[in-house]
Amino acid sequence: MTGRQKTFTLGGIHPEENKLSANAPIEVLPLPKQAIIPMGQNLGAPSKPIVNRGDLVKVGQLIAEAGGFISANIHSPVSGKVLKIDNVPDASGYKRPGIVINVEGDEWEESIDRSVEIKEEIELDGKEIIERVKEKGLVGMGGATFPTFVKLMPPPGKVADYLLINGVECEPYLTSDHRLMLEKGKEILIGTKILMKALKVKKAVIGIENNKPDAINHINELAKGYEGIEVQPLKVQYPQGGEKQLIKAALNREVPSGKLPIEVGCVVQNVGTAYAVYEAVQKNKPLIERVVTVTGKAVRKPSNFMVRVGTPVQELIDAAEGLPESTGKIVNGGPMMGKALTSLEVPVVKGSSGILLMQESESRRKPESPCIRCSKCTYVCPMGLEPFLLAKAAKVGRFDIAEKELVMDCIECGSCQYTCPASIPLLDYLRLGKSMVGAIIRNRKK
Amino acid sequence: MNMLTVSGSPHIHGDESTKKVMYGVVYAMIPAMLVSVYYFGLNALRVLLLATAAALFFEWLIQKYLIKGPVTITDGSALVTGILLAFNVPSNLPSWMVIVGALVAIGMAKMSFGGLGKNIFNPALVARVFLLISFPVQMTSWPKPHAIINGLTDAVTGPTPLGIVKEGLDAGKTMSELTPELPNYLQELIGQMGGSMGEVSAIALILGGLYMIFRKIITWHIPVSMLLTVVVFSGILWGVDPEHYADPVFHLLTGGMLLGAIFMATDMVTSPMTRGGQLLFGFGVGLLTILIRIWGAYPEGVSFAILLMNAVVPLINRGFKPRRFGVKPGVEIKTS
User: Fold this and answer.
1) Averaged over B140-151, what is the pLDDT?
2) Which among A335, B35, B115, B307 is most buried, taking Cβ atoms within 10 Å?
3) Which residues contact B319 (CB under 8 A, 6 or more apart)?
4) Which chain B positions have a beta carbon within 8 Å of A327's beta carbon?
5) Residue B179 is inside which H or E element, if any?
């Protein structure tokens, strides 16, 4: 690397990295006895079941269809008998519609190529790729779970010139993308090529933070064989994995307030998504499994597992040698943006990147004290907002102020709350502000 | 198994706390405290202990018996106010006046606004100005610094360098006539001059300031813009007429300039929230200070300047916003 190390310029924090499972190779987790498949696994409308109780299904068989344009198909991750179609627990803490399948054997759809050979040649054309990605139920694997095919179809008048592959993994603890890059690098690069073809772009940049030098070297070495793909090492800073921050860091382009990356000619996809694209397009395999990190300071065996969607969290924890006695909180995702789980029956879904077991001592928030107007929240906000002001506006119900001060630009990264010396739950108030202002804007449009 | 905690993200927190911030300020004031005791003896110790004890006591009293809410005197904020109050008075101030000052700082300037974080004006400065206006004689009789601890009585008092200049110029003397009466730069730097307890030693104050910048308790913006304004403004006047205006270095090193720039104007609660706003705030303080020092009735203007600028902080906060991501500077933000 020459010159100044690249990173985004506004705000940012440096939480302890704690990548405990970085050296644990991906292990294939045994099949669960029962798979619980929530219908709401993607951003947008939930999927609609197309199987009935008692049906026999194979691995990879379509079991639920997209419930709207911004939605995704769901395929059975296991083979067996549909036990029930009922409300099931999900990461949100609510019970929502889902399909429960009793696992019997492991019988796959014949159309899926299960061979281990890597297939380089991309036979499908752009349109067919998008169709395939849509059909196979692909969503963003970084956590936002936005249906992948939608991002591959820029709105009329907008053209992409860069594809960005997000290998930043800026969340502390999580290592699933890191391991995937080390172990499935070639597939990720072919997936990137496929995405480039679908988007008709000549250039792709894979952004990886400097705390993963092995991944940078490995992907860099492999990328030499692929025209137009470049690796961009980035200086470690949270939340660099945010789309807008990554685009700023890698290309110095700034997505305008309230707009999408395509506005500056960019499409961002996670490395996990690139891998899933490879599997869908080259191997005809739907999105039915993913890499999940199981980690935490007291976890006996911090691990990375290749897990079928629908596997209850309990089984992952068992495979990591059990729930430590000291556990006080279980987070689905990373410690900055993940959701605390209410039960261990919650299944792995397409967007699950990790399970973090936090110790009792680190589980509770510190008591809140008055704001001392230190402005640290403002300094760390990667969007240039004033969290103290937005939180206050939301608290007293002045959503007009919250809107004017751009609460909708908040990416919910949590940097403000992480930094606040008074331990004010700023993000709680900002989320409140966002949901109220969002509702106000929708009503105004009616 | 234990009950699991469920709360919104983020699930980790940095190790900053209000207490750490406040005690960081206390540590930063240790050099100046030591210097004040070294120069002004046990009397300085008396004022320091009295001011901090009274500040803590009044905060406890008001929180427990008047507001009947939680008592938070261990958070360090009242301690900071107490020390700053002591820094801002002469070491021979009668004890009861120190106590009155603490009551004004905590009761009037802080708790009546709602306590920590809610006050508009810097509590220690409100108390200082209150005392200055109420007891002008006692507040301006400055003991001369002695290098050794010399008991509870300070026999020798005299004017501050700023006072000498103000009176001398008003009496028609020129700067070159006044210079022999003034301490030299080295004496000013180490604090060999009359003044409030905490303000005399530039070196001790700068040390504290560097520590606070290192600990990220303050940033350079307010002190630098304030002091730069002072240097430029007083420098222009001095350049035009060095016989009737003191030089910029003299302005920097005397009176409460550095104490104000490093410890008072940078008070988080009463200064602007954005860098741009902080630069303007510092500029305003510097400008007002020189205006008061040169054309005002008082020889020293830092306290008044900071309090006046404190009053416009809410306005500055409205006008100065951080640079928003994805919004071009100068472009009106449209709300849909």
Assistant:
1) 66
2) A335
3) B277
4) 1-2, 4
5) none
Residues of chain B contacting residue A418, judged by C-beta atoms under 8 Å apart: 10, 12-14
Number of domains forming the structure of chain B: 1
Angstrom CA distances, B44 to A376, A421, B11, B35, B94, stand at 35, 32, 46, 10, 11
Interface test with B, best of A248, A253, A339, A375 (most B CBs within 10 A): A375
Band of pLDDT at residue B150, cut at 50, 70 and 90:
very low
Mutate: best of A369, A403, A410, partner B, most B CBs <10 A? A369
Q: Which amino acid is at A296?
A: G
Look at A335 and B12 and tell me if their CB atoms are within 8 Å: yes
Q: Is the dihedral of CA A133, A137, A141, A146 positive or negative?
A: positive
| Chain A interface mutation, best of B11, B15, B110, highest count of A Cβ atoms under 10 Å | B11
Nearest to B13 by CA among A65, A82, A427, A436: A427
Confidence of residue B2 (pLDDT cuts 50, 70, 90): low
- DSSP code of residue A59: B
Are A305 and A325 in contact by the 8 Å Cβ rule? The answer is: no
* CA A26 to each of CA A306, A350, B151, B174, B228: distance values in angstroms, whole numbers, following the listed order: 6, 17, 75, 83, 59
CATH of segment(s) A29-112+287-362: 3.10.20.600
Test B72 with A418 for CB contact under 8 angstroms: no
* Among A residues 100-159, those touching chain B with beta carbons less than 8 Å apart: none
The CATH architecture to which A126-283 belongs is 3-Layer(aba) Sandwich (3.40)
Phi and psi angles of residue A294, each rounded to the nearest 5 degrees, phi first: -115, 120
- Same topology, domains A29-112+287-362 and A126-283? Answer is no
The answer to whether residue B145 is domain-embedded is no
The residues spanned by each domain of chain A are 29-112+287-362, 126-283, 376-445
Q: B117 lies in which domain range?
A: 18-138
Residue B41 placed within a domain: yes
Residues B154-209: pLDDT tens digits?
Answer: 556 777 888 889 888 888 888 888 888 888 888 888 877 888 888 888 999 999 99
* ipTM value for the complex: 0.91
User: CA B173, CA B169: separation in Å to the nearest integer?
Assistant: 5
Q: Is residue B238 part of a domain?
A: no
Residue B67 resides in a domain = yes
Q: Which of A73-87, A409-423, B29-43, B264-278 has the lowest mean pLDDT?
A: B29-43
